[in-house]
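(Fold this chain)
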Amino acid sequence: MKRLIYMILSAMTACILLAGCQIEVQEDKKEETSGYNFYYINEDESDLKKEEYVPQEETADYMIPDLMQKLNNKTLQGGAVNLLPKDVQMNYTIEPSEEGGDHNSVLVIDFNNTYNDMSRAREILVRSGVVKTFIQVPGISAVRFTVGGKELVDTKGQPVGNMTASTFVELSGADKDNYRYDTFTLYFTDKSGSSLVEEKRNVGYRRSIPKERVILEQLAKGPMVKGHYPTIPENTGILSVLTSDNICYVNVDQVFSDYALEVPEHIAVYSVVDSLLASAEADKVKLSVGGDGEGTFGENMPLYNFYEWNDDLITVEESAQ
């Protein structure tokens, strides 16, 4: 009898241990995630939501068409809205990026003309959700939109260009209305240091920040395109910026002058002037350094001047033609 009781207890213990192992395995599986998401729009169409996406193959050849199908045809719960309106269709091509390498391809998504029928608010959500969805795909480092074969442009008619996940600020709740997106044209210099070259940059920023300040901060960050070179010191501080009567008054700290880069002084000044005038509502720029608006920058650029747009210094690169 004792032997029988011992066998029964042993069997019960084994079952409990086995069940425990199974629970641990199941919990481990729950913790495992694919790391991928696809995006959709909440019920009141004011924000993006995401759901885990588990691809059968972690390759661009599989994931891109599969995600495109899901963006339009996924059945969503609780009144959520598919990212793309019903009649908006898309195709794609993959191009090598300027950075080169196997993991730096640009996904070019071409939408039909119905894309232009979306409201501005919806279009921003769509743009953000599509980029965040496809930038996850292995090998894709940037996404560019075209509509009917033509470059997508912003409200100022400027091409939006390549976008990455960092292009878009995470917005939520009431904070969402405090942000805006703009595409700025910044002017850096070429290898020779004798010409200005343009670079488009998509930036999300708080509405309370003057766009002129954002332009200068982006210019100080330096170029992101291969073959472009910086024109002003990275740690240049913007003391104040104000636009009045179509004149943009800019006061930068002494770093702008004391740590000037090895580029001609007129290139540094006009990189600031042309970058501001390309995107701000101004016709002229008045520059001050450390509060001094009467001296000179370098030897030949008077700070008391009101500088206007200089088209002669801009070189149109072959890839941009």
Observations:
- Residues 15-19, 21-31 have pLDDT under 50 and may be disordered.
